[in-house]
């Protein structure tokens, strides 16, 4: 049986308690599984996961539930909520993009290929399944836009009412429209994400609503599957680095837990180093890392990457554990570098939203600083789809941003509609008529 365990005071609780944090010390809770039955049986698990790739059963096709022995071993199959999340592509970066990042071997796991366009669907599959099991009728979250889009969709599918709190005016248009479209009650809070999350925590403790921010440990169990699936795709060969953007630090937390559990079972025999990249204007975790995690100071966050515009990350303690356990790293990327890296990822035909591009910008910086070596294998996690934030794409390429230069612009052209005008745009200006 799995249990809940406080990461601070180590107190254990039954899985059926409706606690989001430790009632004794307010520490974060882990879902701790008993993996003893799998010790020495890693090959059996690998074969099982391989077999499921041939199945049309929705719980096997889901890139979360395919790995159910690791993410939610106690959930009965009938209770599972799924939208076919996960099973996202692991791209080998084209040469021009790898060269831009400064490494020979770069892979991009595109979590924007999830049903609502971000990695949040993985945690929402397990989170909403849990909400239903707990008998919830309503679910609540604060969000910079992707958690909410995902929760709105999964809640609608599961027949739950969704209540969403947004930071005022700072959510990308694709994300707001998803929340409205999927029928969530959508509320803007006059404040930032951190203020909205505080109100959500208060609401979840005093109203009959189930909290689905990533402080809920069942969310993180689903998000572990990003790493499990990526390693499955690499035939369990561990890269040197996994690079992830850091905002509320849920993913950073989930990645370390996934890696430690996979090593315990024997699915992998060593750990990759996890590098967390924050936007320079929203970097309390990077600042704490620079102080060797001696203390934590929240910040007032500002960045063009609105997904990670967060100054007081909820999963801080667990993310510290990931960085310590994996001998990892934390750094920042400026908005300029994020937008330039995004232009390169987009131009490669892969595309992502700004927060995701912080990974490639971060790799470039860490190669420059000789933290990452050019011959090391690097996997970047692209967390959201290019269409989540179309406005920044238009603004960048039309060069109308006040504080960002478009170093790799692709301007829109306008013509009256004649062939003579059109030939001007042919590659190499090859104005030869057939
Ligand atoms: N990338 C994207 C596209 C995100 O939406 C988020 C977080 C992150 C990175 C950061 O991940 O919080 O696990 O460190 N978005 C949350 C939201 C905060 O509300 O959608 P994290």
Structure report:
With 434 residues, the protein is α/β, with parallel strands linked by helices. It contains 17 helices and 13 strands. The strands form 3 sheets. The chain has a 6-stranded mixed beta sheet with strand order 4-5-13-10-11-12, with helices on both faces. Strands 8-7-6-9 form a 4-stranded parallel beta sheet, sandwiched between helices. Helix 5 crosses helix 6 and helix 11 packs across helix 13. The protein is globular, with a radius of gyration of 22 Å. The structure holds ligand F0G.
Oligomerization state = single chain
Question: In what range is the share of β-strand residues?
Answer: 5-15%
Shape: globular
Helix content: 25-40%
Topology order in helix (H) and strand (E) letters: EEEHHHEHEHEHEHEHEHHEHEHHEHHEHH
Whole-number mean pLDDT: 97
Cα radius of gyration in angstroms: 22 Å
Main sheet: strands, sense, barrel? 6 strands, mixed
User: Which ions, cofactors or small ligands are bound in this entry?
Assistant: ligand F0G
Structural class: alpha/beta
Helix count? 17
């Amino acid at each position: 049986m799995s249990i809940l365990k406080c990461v601070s005071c180590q107190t254990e609780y039954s899985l059926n308690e409706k606690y989001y944090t430790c009632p004794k010390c307010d520490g974060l809770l882990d879902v701790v599984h008993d993996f003893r039955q799998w010790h020495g049986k890693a090959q059996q698990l690998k074969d099982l996961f391989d077999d499921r790739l041939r199945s049309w059963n929705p719980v096997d096709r889901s890139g979360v539930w395919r790995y159910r022995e690791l993410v939610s071993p106690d959930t009965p199959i009938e209770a599972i909520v799924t939208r076919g999340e996960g099973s996202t592509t692991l791209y080998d970066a084209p040469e021009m993009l790898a060269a831009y990042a400064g490494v020979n071997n770069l892979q991009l796991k595109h979590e924007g290929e999830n049903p609502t366009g971000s990695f949040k669907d993985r945690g929402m599959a397990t989170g909403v399944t849990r909400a239903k099991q707990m008998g919830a009728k309503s679910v609540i979250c604060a969000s910079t836009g992707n958690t909410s889009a995902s929760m709105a969709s999964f809640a609608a599918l599961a027949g739950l009412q969704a209540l969403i709190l947004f930071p005022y005016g700072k959510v990308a248009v694709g994300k707001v429209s998803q929340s409205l479209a999927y029928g969530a009650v959508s509320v803007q809070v006059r404040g930032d994400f951190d203020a909205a999350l505080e109100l959500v925590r208060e609401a979840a403790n005093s109203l009959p609503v189930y909290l689905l921010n990533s402080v809920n440990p069942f969310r993180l169990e689903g998000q572990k599957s990003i790493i499990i699936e990526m390693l499955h795709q690499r035939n369990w060969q561990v890269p040197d680095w996994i690079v992830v953007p850091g905002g509320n630090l849920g993913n950073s937390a989930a990645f370390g837990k996934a890696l430690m559990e996979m090593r315990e079972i024997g699915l992998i025999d060593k750990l990759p180093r996890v590098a967390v990249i924050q936007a320079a204007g929203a970097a309390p975790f990077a600042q704490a890392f620079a102080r060797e995690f001696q203390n934590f100071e929240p910040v007032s966050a500002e960045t063009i990457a609105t997904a990670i515009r967060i100054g007081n990350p909820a999963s801080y303690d667990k993310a510290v554990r990931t960085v310590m356990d994996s001998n990892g790293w934390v750094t920042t990327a400026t908005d300029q570098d994020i937008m330039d890296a995004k232009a390169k990822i987009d131009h490669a035909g892969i595309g992502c939203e700004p927060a995701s591009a912080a990974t490639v910008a971060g790799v470039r910086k860490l190669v420059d600083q000789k933290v990452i070596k050019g011959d090391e294998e690097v996997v970047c996690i692209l967390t959201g789809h290019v269409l989540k934030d179309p406005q920044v794409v238009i603004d960048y390429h039309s060069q109308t941003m006040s504080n960002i230069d478009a170093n790799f612009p692709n301007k829109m052209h306008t013509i009256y509609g004649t062939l003579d005008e059109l030939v001007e745009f042919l590659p190499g200006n090859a104005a030869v008529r057939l």
